[in-house]
Amino acid sequence: MKASESFRQDIAAQAILLPMDAEQGEGIGLARRYRVYAYPTFLLVDAEGIVLDGWLGYEAAEPFLITLREAAAAPQPLPERRRAFRKAPSAAAAAKIAELEQLGGAFGEALAWYRRAQELGSEANLAPAIFEAVARGQREGLFGDLALLEPARQVIAEPRSSGRQIMETVALLGQATQGKADRSVYLDALERGAARLAGAASAEDQRYHAALMADHTLLGEGRSDEAFAWKQKSMAEGWRDQPAALNEIAWWCFEGGVALEDAEDFARRGVALAASDGEKANIMDTLAELRNARGDCDEALELIREALRLNPNSDYLKQQLARFEKLANEQKQG
Amino acid sequence: MKTLLAASLLVALTLAAGSALAGTPGTLAEASAQAAASRQPILLEIGTSW
After folding, report:
1. Considering chain B, what percentage of its residues have pLDDT values greater than 90?
2. What pTM does this model have?
3. Do A58 and B14 count as a contact with CB atoms less than 8 A apart?
4. Quick check: is A225 in a domain?
């Protein structure tokens, strides 16, 4: 962990920390075994590897430790949790089972347990989790696109939903409808999310508002200059010196076909500032896409070759190499 | 390449330095042996190093 020694010791008091890179060595198999669908996934497992608890994503140190302490205080495999629920049903137990079903990729079961928690009078804001279960299930073909509409609207309308939860909901809808002719569900959420966060007090929520405005202005209204201005407003302070942020905006420009020259500058700067070979390879891939979009497939190919030298185990980069080799050949022949 | 989660929205805490420290397991088998001996659970973090 890139964390202070005292934080590490606080973790060590609860559990044996085992960080695994999902794209390298043993991590590849573990990511498959535990059906990991987002990074980072934290799983509390016993010595046999059986999941006792788990959660997604990073938090600040203190809430992270609270989550870990709560998990370590009452570790139970799912079958035991289901048995305990049958004996003493409660909204909290149903919601916990739902979370773990979701973490294990059983999205239909997760949804049923969240509904159960609601029926039992859960006071928690379950709207974001319900939306996520439906969105992940949609990706696996369990639900159609329209099933996403109402859960997304509920997240946005729910007063207890944070700016980040609204942003993540809309972002998942963006992924769910990527490349589809009908993105009305996504556009609906962009418009509602932007309206909900308009005039937000915190700097963080103002950035989320700007990010939603960027996509809404681009996809809903086709005004790319205005969208690019919103996108830059959405970036955190100091983003021009942060490789991950530079990559994020460069990729956004590439996907939207917006300000490609600026995007190339961002990506080149990101490559120069990258702190690790893996990160550098990742941003080189973005730069390759931008070079290709601007008509230079040969440089794109060189960039992908270099990225693969830096991160030789990446299946994604191997696919990109094959793709750009094919494109370069087609250009030479045609 | 787009990352699975927007890193700029998150507070990065973990990975990278974990296995470099003495006594920290590098594989699930090592962690399992430690877990069995200490009766502690394993906190498995699955992410990427960038």
Report:
1. 36
2. 0.76
3. yes
4. no
Q: Is the pLDDT of residue A35 over 80?
A: yes
What are the chain B neighbours of A278 within 8 Å (beta carbons)? 48-50
One DSSP character per residue, chain B reads: ---SS-GGGS----SSSGGGSTT--SSHHHHHHHHHHHTPPEEEEEE---
pLDDT in tens, A198-209: 999 999 999 999
Question: Distance from A137 to chain B by nearest Cα, in Å?
Answer: 17
Which residue range forms the structural domain that includes residue A5?
Answer: 1-75
CB contact under 8 A, A47 and B5: no
Asked if the Cβ–Cβ distance from B6 to A59 is below 8 Å, we say no
CB contact under 8 A, A31 and B27: no
- Residue B1 confidence class, pLDDT cut points 50, 70, 90: low
Is position A155 within any domain? no
Looking at chain A, which residue has its C-alpha nearest residue B1?
A286
Residue burial A138-160, b: 16+ Cβ < 10 Å; e: rest: beeeebebebbbebbbbbbebee
Under 8 Å CB-to-CB from A159, ≥6 apart: which residues? none
Report yes or no: A311 and A277 within 8 Å, Cβ to Cβ.
yes
> Does residue A273 lie in a domain region?
yes
Number of domains within chain A: 3
Q: pLDDT by residue (tens digit) across A142-160? A: 999 899 999 999 999 999 9
How distant is the Cα of A92 from the closest Cα of chain B, in angstroms?
Answer: 23
Contact with chain A for residue B38, Cβ under 8 A: yes
Closest CA to A27 of B18, B21, B36: B18
Which chain B residue has the Cα nearest residue A73? B41
Per-residue pLDDT band at A23 (split at 50, 70, 90): confident
